UniProtKB/TrEMBL annotation, chain B:
PANTHER family given in the database record: ABC TRANSPORTER PERMEASE PROTEIN (PTHR11795:SF447), BRANCHED-CHAIN AMINO ACID TRANSPORT SYSTEM PERMEASE PROTEIN LIVH (PTHR11795)
Main localisation: membrane
Any one Gene Ontology cellular component term annotated for this protein: plasma membrane
Pfam families noted in UniProt: BPD_transp_2
Record's protein name: Urea ABC transporter permease subunit UrtB
Keyword Cell cycle set for record: no
Cell compartments where the protein resides: Cell membrane
Gene Ontology biological process terms, A to Z: amino acid transport
The entry's keywords: Amino-acid transport, Cell membrane, Membrane, Transmembrane, Transmembrane helix, Transport
Length: 231, 300
């Protein structure tokens, strides 16, 4: 089954067009990685899928339904979870309250123990304000907040960027576990090709707002990917 | 000694009135950053609701139940003012969230319309509301007589404050409001309908203006222009307290209340008013963002 399909998507800010003619699809249970240098439009693409930016042209289809005109909250209700770049934790809400806001999108009433099992620190710090956590802890909270509502599809925007190495490893393990045990489909924006190869099923590389390379992960050509990633 | 006590009580009493007037505005202006110039008219609506309730009780119920009109008027004023707030938000404010100056002008216009509406329905002259009998007289403490009506307003403002605190910090709906005010876009991405939250928050702020209007009927006659005399005080309290900090409004209200009473005691009513304004100007030079500073949703 088709999870997500983007048809001829064009979007940007005000007058400037940041992404052009994007054709992309994610199948059920598939992890799709998006790679590319900084500023080529990866975050804009994810924001367009989430509905924060409305596309100038093209369509966003989620589970074969056209959601191009829907608000982000409706998309979240339909099962899209979003872990944005910069984490976007509610600073004056406690860790637990942040997770409770994450529950708004789903039918769940309580925070599942599995989520705490992924990130035990969140249980320990549940009463602290989100804004008082370190960057790595906030990133764990952002991922947990997206997972509590049992989304069928996850958007992860550079979840390991700027985070201390031991937490990077932990987050990578969680992403692999979500893929293998929860079978959640994902779009993962990631720069680390080794990690991409260990978790992805399919890879797209973006440059200057367009898809310049795509292949399934077992046939990927490292040199070609590096060519687009190098500055 | 007893004069000091009296000044303190009057300060607390004025503070509680200011707090009640400003609580709703602390939500609509403080949290949502909407400069609602019609806030005073929402207070006026609450006052007229009390007047209408009084007349309904006189016409339709035996006189022994008369006193209950006031108890019933408080929730009705809250609901009616919240209803007006909801209509305002839905038909006007929601188009102006990113345009503070336009919303200032537009809500001022709404205020004028509401004043005229009151004039058309109730007539231009002031009308009186008879206080319920249980609020007549006062509590004797030593040589002092503390009027029950003032004590009641003090109690009402504290009750409202506890209610607001409970709503924001203990309920799911209040949690959604706080999330939206802290990070609107992310709350939306997590499935919170920010439209509904905006509508509800504005309605709650307006509702508390209605409650204030209800309390104000205990202080004197009411008229269509009642709101204009309170709107300045309300904004003053919220700005001194700190925009975006609900509990700054408490400090602001009681601070202004005590200083105002003390100045009036030491000089006279008009010099006292001048001194309090000078104090506020000086204070805002020193702390432009008010007593309690808290980052709220910026005017994005």
């Amino acid at each position: 089954m088709q999870m997500l399909k983007l048809q001829g998507l064009e979007a940007g800010y005000d007058e400037s067009m940041v992404i052009r003619n994007i054709e992309l699809q994610v199948k059920d249970r598939q992890v799709v990685c998006i790679m590319g240098r900084n500023g080529v439009g990866k975050t804009t693409l994810l924001k367009t899928i989430m509905g924060i930016i409305s596309p100038r042209k093209g369509k966003v289809l989620f589970m074969e339904e056209d959601i191009t005109k829907k608000r982000p909250s409706q998309r979240a209700q339909q099962g899209i979870g979003y872990v944005p770049q910069g984490r976007e934790i509610f600073p004056k809400l406690s860790v637990y309250e942040n997770l409770l806001i994450g529950l708004e999108a789903g039918k769940e009433k309580k925070v599942k123990e599995e989520v705490y099992a992924y990130f035990p620190i969140l249980k320990e710090f549940r009463k602290r304000n989100g804004g008082d956590l370190s960057g790595g802890q906030q990133q764990q909270l952002a991922i947990a907040r997206a997972l509590v509502s049992n989304p069928s599809f996850l958007l992860l925007d550079e979840p390991t960027e700027g985070i201390q190495p031991n937490i990077v490893e932990q987050i990578q393990e969680v992403i692999k576990d979500v893929k293998h045990t929860l079978h959640t489909s994902m779009i993962l924006v990631e720069q680390d090709l080794e990690f991409v190869k260990s978790v992805a099923d399919y890879v797209y590389v973006i440059d200057h707002g367009s898809i310049v390379y795509e292949n399934s992960v077992d046939q990927i050509n490292d040199d070609e990917v590096y060519h687009y990633l190098s500055v | 000694m007893s004069e000091l006590m009296l000044t303190l009580f009057n300060g607390a009493s004025l503070g509680s009135i200011l707090l009640l007037i400003a609580l709703g505005l602390a939500i609509t202006f403080g949290l949502m950053n909407v400069i609602n110039m019609a806030h005073g008219e929402l207070i006026m609506i609450g006052a007229y609701v009390t007047y209408v309730m009084q007349n309904l009780f006189i016409s339709y119920l035996p006189s022994q139940y008369f006193d209950f009109y006031f108890i019933l008027a408080i929730p009705v004023a809250l609901l009616v003012a919240a209803g007006f707030g909801m209509i305002m938000e839905f038909s006007l404010i929601r188009f102006l969230y990113k345009r503070p100056l336009d919303s200032l002008l537009a809500t001022w216009g709404v205020g004028l319309m509401l004043q005229q509406l009151a004039r058309s329905i109730f007539g231009a002259p002031n009308v009186g509301v008879k206080s319920p009998s249980f609020l007549n007289g006062g509590l004797e403490v030593g040589t002092l007589l503390l009027p029950y009506s003032r004590l009641f307003i003090l109690g009402l403002s504290i009750t409202c404050l506890i209610g607001i605190y409970y709503y924001f910090y203990r309920t799911a709906s209040g949690r959604r409001v706080r999330a939206v005010m802290q990070n609107r876009q992310m709350a939306e991405c997590l499935g919170v309908s920010t439209r509904k939250v905006d509508l509800l928050t504005f309605a709650i702020g307006s509702g508390f203006a209605g409650v204030a209007g209800c309390a104000i009927t205990l202080l004197g006659a009411i008229g269509p222009a009642l709101g204009t005399s309170y709107i300045i005080d309300a904004f003053m309290v919220v700005v001194v307290g700190g925009v975006g900090a609900l509990f700054g409004a408490v400090a602001g209200a009681f601070g202004i209340g005590f200083f105002n009473t003390a100045f009036e005691y030491l000089t006279n009513a008009s010099i006292g008013k001048v001194l309090i304004f000078l104090l506020i100007i000086a204070f805002l030079q020193w702390r432009p963002s008010g007593l309690v500073t808290s980052r709220s949703r910026s005017l994005d």
